[in-house]
Specification:
single chain; 221 residues; four-stranded mixed beta sheet; two-stranded antiparallel ribbon; 6 helices; 8 strands
């Protein structure tokens, strides 16, 4: 799976989405027979989005769809009666849930992240597939019980012991349902952001989640 330097951004984005991969190598060969290929770049959805912003940041008003509130657009995953669902239930877990429950949910719900909420469904943190790599640190996975370790404990594996648990929510990118599509897309400009949590103002009660893939599927539909 690869793309060439003269492929347009839409073609590259579609290759990423259709093949469910994170990056596509951009390959160039100076010879007609394709020998001696050179790797020029690794294209990703976040990189493509940055390119889009580079050209449309100052003219977003000319694209009315970017000014629509996120809850009025058919993308993302929402709790019932808030926004249009994409057909999947919005998966959430409590910090006291087992790590095994989180891993099973990531696999069976086919999602890349799970909002971690309190008893009022207010956002505390987020558990991502990338957090699983913390289990490989010092071979932690060899001496833990997935059914006994909580999500709270698992998330602390990658953090210093003095880092307050309440402050971990700062790594969660949030928006309100009334925010525009453009504002939500801006959140994805931050390094490493793959999802934005839609919360209720004040309570931070989780109302939905929008991923980078959701954004591109909507734009390319």
């Amino acid at each position: 799976l690869q793309a060439g330097p003269y492929d347009n951004l839409k073609e590259v984005a579609l290759k990423i989405l259709q093949n469910d991969v994170c990056t596509v190598p951009i390959i160039h060969s100076s010879s007609d027979d394709g020998s001696f290929p050179q790797l020029l770049h690794l294209a990703s959805l976040s990189g493509i989005l940055k390119c889009i912003f580079r050209y449309f940041r100052h003219v977003s008003g000319s694209l009315p769809v970017l000014q629509l509130p996120i809850c009025s657009i058919p993308l993302g995953t929402w709790v019932p009666k808030i926004g249009e669902s994409n057909g999947r239930p919005l998966a959430m877990l409590r910090p006291s849930a087992s790590l095994s429950a989180a891993l099973n949910l990531l696999i069976h719900a086919q999602v890349s992240s799970i909002p971690i909420v309190d008893d009022n469904d207010s956002l505390l943190d987020i558990y991502c597939r990338s957090d699983i790599t913390a289990l490989a640190k010092d071979r932690v996975y060899t001496h833990i019980n997935l059914n006994e370790m909580t999500i709270h404990q698992a998330l602390q594996l990658g953090q210093d012991s003095f880092y307050p648990y309440e402050l971990r929510s700062q790594r969660c990118q949030m928006c309100l349902r009334s925010d525009s599509l453009f504002k939500v897309m801006e959140r994805f400009g931050n390094p490493g952001v793959r999802q934005v949590i839609i919360v209720e103002a004040g309570s931070k009660r989780v109302e939905g989640i929008v991923t980078l893939s959701d954004i591109f599927r909507f734009l390319l539909s």
